[in-house]
Design a protein that fits this description.
eight-stranded mixed β-sheet; 8 strands; disordered C terminus
């Protein structure tokens, strides 16, 4: 109990310090007369509510030194997605239509289809070694100018991929705000730490990978894994190439505002994380993976399975303590008598609430785009958010051992259309 009380808040406090650590490209730049060619892939399955904004935002990333082409993979949509895409008249937009039975075999297959299309064009034009493939989900919005920072990281030959920071743009809802706290603070700090030790992970939104790196992984670099992004990152690391974290380049996405959909999404993520445990032996054998990096890899592959029972244990102990104190009943190891009972309950409550309050302070100080009272509210709700994660982890374990690997696509929320040519609002 003492270990739980001390470790959990201390771990979050130390990790929070990395929210202010800003990794820089560093190292010698490789001069080039030719700019990198960016191909942004947008997998789309029934994305009529959001795809127009996403495509226009992606096209707006185009610049003199960061030329952009956009590939939308319409993966067998049966809504108005094809019509919405047909209304966008831009020679830089390429729409690839996949029909059943080839369509709807997972995001990885859709990405592989676009990869082969881009590879063919790059090989024909002789631009393979300066082509970068980016992935932006159907609800993603890239911040103007972000490709300039990404280009600085790719100036080093040893960098095979770059991951961007992710934020939530509909955080007026408390549940969506909790996801913004998670992505823009907890994950951001974790990725900054991983950049130091060389273990940055790839996310589904805002990943940028060299075409040549993907080609080293075969004809289908993305797999059928339920977290194909995490798995791709592990495969890139195993090639000996480095993944960097771009802390200013930002992708925003929709947050889920329905608890059931959030549980379904996180269950899929948890099950995919479990599938990736198969890479642990390969990491142990990899000569170019150092001891510190190996420990960090193991930490972020194994920690979700430790956090789940730990969160449930802490919550259960606090609940039992309150029950004993206010009901007068005794349970083994817990007694209502004694002057220290309330003090013990208070310590447990602080240990449970302190991490959320730490991250709410980080959010307020780092971003300053939400009022203090909302930050405090989301900090107090953070333990409940962790409990939802624990429930998802338990569900993921059940699905994995039951052999259920199917997944349901997350439904998007309707958005106000961004006029063509209008820049995307900058995120702090």
């Amino acid at each position: 109990m003492l270990v739980l009380l001390v470790f959990w808040p201390s771990y979050n406090l130390v990790l929070a310090l990395f929210a202010w650590w800003r990794p820089k490209p560093g190292g010698p730049e490789v001069p080039s007369r030719h700019p990198l060619q960016y191909w942004i892939i947008i997998p789309a399955l029934n994305e009529e509510r959001v795809v127009a904004n996403t495509v226009r935002s992606a096209l707006a990333l185009d610049g003199a030194r960061t030329p952009v082409q956009v590939v939308v993979v319409d993966d067998g949509s049966d809504d108005r997605t094809p019509n919405v895409l047909a209304e966008i008249d831009d020679h830089r937009l390429h729409v690839l239509r996949r029909n059943l039975p080839d369509a709807r075999k997972g995001k990885g297959e859709a990405l592989n289809h676009a990869f082969r299309y881009v590879r063919g064009i790059a090989e024909e034009n002789g631009t393979v070694h300066r082509t970068i493939i980016g992935v932006i989900d159907g609800d993603g919005r890239g911040e103007p100018g972000m490709l300039s920072e990404i280009t600085q990281y790719f100036a080093q030959r040893g960098v095979g991929a770059v991951q961007c920071r992710v934020r939530i743009h509909n955080r007026d809802n408390l549940l969506a705000f909790l996801q913004d706290l998670e992505f823009s603070c907890v994950v951001d700090a974790s990725q900054s730490l991983r950049d130091v030790v060389g273990t940055v992970g790839l996310g589904g939104n805002g990943q940028f990978v060299r075409l040549s790196t993907l080609m080293e992984l075969g004809d289908a670099p993305w797999s059928a894994c339920l977290v194909e992004d995490l798995e791709l990152g592990l495969r890139v690391h195993l090639t000996g190439q480095r993944i960097r974290y771009a802390t200013h380049a930002t992708i925003t996405q929709q947050g889920l505002i329905d608890v059931n959909r959030l549980l379904r999404q996180r269950t899929r993520w948890g099950q995919g994380n479990l599938q990736c445990l198969g890479y642990v032996p390969k990491l142990l054998k990899a000569k170019h993976v150092g001891s510190v990096a190996l420990l960090e890899f193991l930490q972020y592959l194994l920690t979700p399975w430790l956090v789940a029972p730990m969160t449930l244990l802490i919550t259960a102990l606090v609940g039992i303590g309150f029950y004993v104190q206010f009901s007068g009943h005794e349970i083994d190891g817990f007694s209502a008598s004694g002057s220290n009972a309330l003090l013990a309950l208070g310590i447990w409550a602080v240990a449970l609430l302190l991490p959320g309050l730490i991250w709410s302070a980080v959010h307020r100080l780092r971003h300053a785009d939400e009022p203090l009272w909302r930050c405090l509210a989301v900090g107090l709700a953070y333990p409940g958010f962790l409990i939802l994660g624990s429930i998802s982890t338990l569900r993921a374990l059940f699905r994995h051992f039951a052999g259920r690997n199917s997944w349901a696509k997350t439904e998007r929320l309707a958005e106000k259309e961004i006029p063509a040519g209008k820049p995307v609002p900058k995120i702090a």
